Amino acid sequence: MGIGARKVVLDMKAQIHPHYRPVKVTCASCGTSYDTRSTRGDFSIDVCASCHPFYTGKQKVIDAEGRVERFKKKYAKKA
User: Fold this and answer.
1) What is the pTM of this model?
2) CA–CA gap between residue 28 and residue 33 (Å, rounded)
3) Which one of 13, 18, 22, 52 is CB 3.0 to 4.6 Å from 39, fit for a cystine?
4) What does the mean pLDDT of the chain come to?
5) Of 30, 24, 22, which is closest to residue 49 (Cα–Cα)?
6) What architecture (CATH level 2) is domain 21-75?
7) What is the band of 69 on the pLDDT scale with cuts at 50, 70, 90?
């Protein structure tokens, strides 16, 4: 702090903040569970980072009904 600077103390209001407590999160797909903190109780998630295809590298690009080919055909340069 410089010369003439005052120390300002901001007190948080009591009894208005939610309780932030340890909880257990469980993945419904693979059963993995881990501890974290939350304002609500224990909960379950549909998919976690250990079984999600994007994070595991097992993601498949699905060309449903030839959409990629139709796009390429539609916007291909005409000779």
Assistant:
1) 0.49
2) 9
3) 18
4) 80
5) 30
6) Irregular (4.10)
7) confident
d(CA 2, CA 59): 56
Residue 35's DSSP bridge partners are 24
β-strand partners of 21: 38
**Ramachandran bin of 68, using left for φ above 0, alpha for ψ from -120 to 50, beta for the remaining angles:** alpha
SS3 per-residue string spanning 27-70:
ECCCCCEEEEEECCCCEEECCCCCCCHHHHCCCCCCCHHHHHHH
Average pLDDT for 34-51? 88
Residues 6+ apart with CB under 8 A from 46: 27, 28, 29
